[in-house]
Amino acid sequence: MDRRTMIKGAGATVGLGLGMAMSARSYARIKGANDRLSVAVIGVNGRGQAHMGAFTKVPNVEITHFCDVDSAVLAKRAGEFAARGNPAPKTEGDYRRLFDNKALDIITIATPDHWHAKLAVDGMKSGHHVYCEKPIGIAPAEGEAMIAAQKSTKRILQVGNQQRSSPETRQLLALVQAGELGDVYEAQTWYANNRKTIGKGQVTTPPANLNWDMWQGPRPRAPYRSNLVPYNWHWFWQYGTGELCNNAMHELDVARWLMGLTYPKTVSAQGAKRFHAGDDWEMYDSLALDLNYDNDRVIRWNGQSCNAMLTYGRGRGVLLLGTKGSAVVDRNGFELYDLAGKSIRQVMAKATSETTGTVGEGVLDVYHAGNFVDVIRGRASALNSPIAEGHISTTLCHLGNMAYRTTSVLIVDPTTGKPSSAEAMKLWSVAYEPGWEVKA
Fold first, then answer.
1. Do β-strands 298-304 and 316-322 pair in parallel, antiparallel, or remain unpaired?
2. Rounded to 5 degrees, what are φ and ψ at 251?
3. Does residue 18 register a pLDDT over 60?
């Protein structure tokens, strides 16, 4: 039911665009070898591994560069990549040298959250197409900068909400739009994991293999802590955005997409708590979020990072409640129910994706990368997750964090997403290290 499995048939060519299969040979006949696109992966320790796996499966695309501020991780991933039979990538510790390389076509961003907007904006301004992991920034103003940069540069920018490229979820979207569930009035979304304590870290000298100054990048400088890198930065406000932007964004994005919604009227966060009290984790690990819309529609998220109890047999997912029936959907398929709660139809993905792991690799990454490349080449007319949509979904998560941090119910402008609270608006943007500002 949870299906924490990796992509099946890794050597197979996976469908592109809207999921229609095409062989590498037939694809090459269309574009030719001279149109091969070159890719640089920035941030290779976590989600970057999923980027490597996805783009190596897109025909006529070659990963040529890896970039990371940790020299040990960079060497390890490059060696692993070559050992799998791929051409050995060139390695770089400073992204700016990559951006000076006009032979590169695409950059993918799988860094910590505080780097996303800076790399995306600078990448587009240097002439590169960008595939950027969610969240698109650590504050809504960064999303606004990315939208402005994309409009001015005309570069292609895909946000890594990979479930938007799921053939099964797109099939459910068509059913919802056709009225199969009637009026969908509520979405319940969730995420469950069993994260352990991060303990008490010490201020210390960073390891020799880590360029700590470059790791901090746009953020104001601070001392290195022993329990921050490579993953626990998620739980520090200086660099991270909490479980809302880390995981809720996926399901909130799917829910509002299926329901045809954008910004809510009100946002509230309840039940926030820290399971492992006394460690350095600065924020909630458990939280219930309510997004209330016009016509009494609501999207709810229940996050439990330290209790992996499943919901409907799934570690993450979306339940749609409608006047004619309901549906449960996750990355690996969906199930329809009648009003009595009886299952009437089940559609399972032919190849599966990881659901709650930190790499999160699977076939959806390949579909999503394929759609991105198809748009670059003019073979598809629209991105499955353009920046305008990514910005709305990221902002929903930021609003949840604002409600949590200000301990208030936010009244939101449904056209801009901005809260009326002056205190919350202080969190709409962030401070930068001088010289590292995000400028569209």
1. unpaired
2. -75, -35
3. no
